[in-house]
Amino acid sequence: MHKTDLIEKMLWQINQDNTELINKAARSILKSEIKRLHLISSVAIKLLQLTHDEDTRIGQLSLLIETEPVLAAKILKQVNSAAYALPH
């Protein structure tokens, strides 16, 4: 076996080992983080679409928000916060 073949084989093995280590690390991170991931409901996606449409009416938003109680509670909490307080 030539020196270049041996070096090539060693580099290939190092690359394989690194790939395996990276995959293991990624799987480990994903397993620990998966519990914190929140799925976006289809209602939330539709709500985002409607809020970007200038022709959307408040009634459309209201009807959509009413179908998702958890989302409605979060929206109410946000709009009632000091960040959205109306000036006196």
**What distance lies between the first and last C-alpha atoms, to the nearest angstrom?**
85 Å
Average pLDDT number: 78
The beta-strand count equals: 0
Main sheet record = none
Discrete helix count: 4
Overall geometry: elongated
Can you tell me the residue ranges where pLDDT is under 50 for at least 5 consecutive residues? none
Strand content: under 5%
Q: What is the domain total for the residues?
A: 2
Radius of gyration: 26 Å
Structural class: mainly alpha
Please estimate the helix content: 55-70%
H-E string: HHHH
Give a description of the structure.
This protein folds into two domains: 3-36; 42-84, no CATH class. The protein is an all-alpha fold. It has helices spanning 3-33, 42-51, 58-66, 69-79. The mean pLDDT is 78.
Helices and strands, with pairings:
Layout (H helix, E strand, L loop, with lengths): L2 H31 L8 H10 L6 H9 L2 H11 L9
Helix pairs in contact: 2-3
Task: From the structure above, extract its key features.
single chain, 69% helix, 4 helices, 2 domains, 0% strand, 88 residues, mainly alpha, elongated
Summarize this structure briefly.
The chain has helices at 3-33, 42-51, 58-66, 69-79.
